[in-house]
Specification:
Length: 187
């Protein structure tokens, strides 16, 4: 039996990537075990997903970054967390927080970085008539969507692609890519 790395997932919304990570982590040889889920949004569906799977999940109010991070650090220490996955987490972590976990915080972004950092990626990708889009799993650094790349996957954009269809297509890709990236790190 592999000794799984105690992991925390940060979310803000739907939690479909969280769901795919939970599913993957049920395999006996998957390198991480999700022991904690933190959401800055009380209404996040991801909180329900965590609960359904018996994972310790908490809502941490984000009034300001210092307080938020202090509360998170507390929980992370208590749960002996060694690895952090951001999955649709819509806040930016401070340099002070990041440097406490060198090469231990990763994120998924719905574009082929370094192109289309930030928000509204699909809209911008379509506006620019790109042929391909995709997703990137990368380490977190103090600049947004700029840390070292771990894995990228791409898909072809159809002629009649809409923002909605592209989002759904990229999400399906993300659900495969995120677990794969984690295996590539520890496998
Ligand atoms: C994903 O597209 C992810 O790449 C981005 O936010 C979205 C989160 O989706 N960072 P979900 O909450 O995992 O469904």
């Amino acid at each position: 039996m592999v000794k799984k790395i105690k992991t925390c997932v940060f979310i803000s919304g739907n939690g479909s990537n969280l769901n795919s990570l939970i599913k993957s982590s049920k395999a006996h040889n998957f390198p991480i075990k999700i022991e904690l889920v933190i959401s800055n949004n009380l209404k996040s569906d991801g909180l329900k997903i965590a609960k359904k799977n018996g994972i310790n999940s908490i809502f941490v109010i984000y009034k300001n970054r210092i307080k938020f991070e202090k509360l998170c650090l507390n929980k992370i220490k208590k749960n002996k967390i060694k690895f952090i996955c951001l999955a649709g987490f819509m806040k930016i972590l401070s340099f002070n927080f990041i440097k406490k976990f060198p090469n231990k915080i990763i994120n998924i972004h719905p574009s082929i970085l370094p192109k289309y950092k930030g928000l509204n990626t699909h809209k911008r990708v379509l506006k620019n008539n790109e042929k391909y889009s995709g997703c990137t799993i990368h380490y977190i650094s103090s600049t947004l969507d700029s840390g070292k790349i771990i894995l990228q996957k791409k898909i072809l954009i159809k002629k009649n692609e809409t923002e909605k269809s592209l989002k759904a297509k990229v999400l399906r890709l993300e659900h495969k890519a995120y677990p794969e990236a984690i295996v590539s790190l520890f496998g």
